Amino acid sequence: MFAGKKGSVFTLVGLYILTIPFFNALNVTAYDNSQILGHFGESTTIFTYSSYIPVFVMLAFMPLGMRIAKQMKVRTMILSACFLAILFNTASLYATNIYWFTFWRSLLAVISIIGIFASMIPILMKYNPAFNMPIMYGIIQFILQGSSHIYKYLGAQFTSVYDWTFSIYFLNINFLIGIILAWIFYRKDVAPMKGKFQFDWRGWIILIFFFTIILFICAEGQSRNWLSDSKITIAFASLLLLIGVYLFHVRFTKEPIIDPDVFKYKNVVMGTFLFFYIGLMNGTGSIVTGYMSGVLGFDGVYQARTHLAILIGLFIAIPLSTYLLYKKIYLATIWIAGFACYGIYHILLYFRFYPGIAPADFLLPFVFKGLAIGFLYPISALYIAEGVPAKLGDSRMMSGIIARVIIATLLGGALLGTFISNTKAQHKTGLSQQLSVVNQQAAKKLSNTKNYYLHQGSSQIEAQKMAERSLSNQTSKASILLAYKDIYLVMSALCILPIIILLLFRLGRRPIGRVELEPIPV
């Protein structure tokens, strides 16, 4: 089926490179949001939906995508996926409105999921079980995590040279390279993992409704002030109802998408919580992005270039953690190292929330963030798959993804935005109360600003209003920095908590066990 001798490094590298465009189908335009929003001229709420929908479509299609990838002939599937990805990607360039743009991007997300699983099958078949699972997944995470930041940077760089459409063309070139690689590395067109096609269509429809409601909550929750709005309350109640409907559905289904029996394995329960916890810690990255753009005024290129520092940590931690897992090091050792790096990352940024910070000041915190990702991501995916039988593989995969991506990252990120707004309002109220004639520093600042506008030819009333507005803007900036500091201080404490639990209760003092399932590649 594959070109080259068994164990060929050249073939291995080629097969892994083939996965990269599918992993980064949505990453390459990560810093182009402002240009895309300006191009279509839609409201912020509509654009929020446009950003969320392709991600939710991708996640919802994962169970079916994996089944399809195992049924079809690999060479045909990868060539078709690359061709369709180019077609859908190009179609998004000619979208006349945001709705068609979202539609084509969603189809691209669907194709990328099929491409991911299809390109992973040859690696699993050729190097597993001969290839040790920690080593194989360490390489996957090394490529996945590293390429995501590189693609985001390249997309931002191309956007600055021309505009956001250049990133789309760049991605098309990647898929063309994928077509060439498929012709080189696949000699036979076979479906090595094909079996009797069975799929839980009814459970999948329930899952789609579940994701749709969470999509609505993520997009509308903050603007509707969450549970104070009746529609958000109904949405949360509907989620509980859907969970009940799904549990009832499972009793009459042989192979459900998420089988509750998977939670009989302790490592799946703990692994799902671990996925949620890691997603929660990593989700604070949106604060830094907002800080760079909203407070410091960094453009997309500066943000993407600064985030490249994460690669340094990834290039150190992922090979190291892979080696340690291969050498049967204790799980607790890697967990403690990862949580400690996340804690250092948050505490370092806590002291960097001040005006005038330079891009170089983010280097050290982002290196520690890369170290944390490199230590925690491979072990969490391997741990949740440990000892789980093949028939529960999809259940284990979806429980981890829902915990980390849906609940922690997407829904947690929406809740975090509200928390930031509320904390900012409290700090601004406290700071505004100090702006009185008693506060000599504030009074002097107001007087100097007023005199400046008077010298510019403004009237007394206009100068007074503009001076008060200027002081209010400075108060607002100070309050958002204080809100950021509060969140990162709390997160640094939450990162230390698992370390204390691991040491206090002597948990994880064993190496990783047998992993027969493919780890979660997304």
UniProtKB/TrEMBL annotation:
Gene3D superfamilies per the UniProt record, alphabetical: MFS general substrate transporter like domains
Q: Does the keyword Membrane apply?
A: yes
Q: Which GO terms describe its cellular component?
A: plasma membrane
The entry's localization annotation reads: Membrane
Q: Which UniProt keywords apply?
A: Membrane, Transmembrane, Transmembrane helix
InterPro entries associated with the record: MFS_trans_sf (IPR036259)
Task: Name the domain of life this protein comes from.
Answer: Bacteria
Q: Which PANTHER family match?
A: MAJOR FACILITATOR SUPERFAMILY
Q: What is this protein called?
A: MFS transporter
Q: Could you read off the lineage of the organism from its UniProt record? A: Bacteria, Pseudomonadati, Bacteroidota, Flavobacteriia, Flavobacteriales
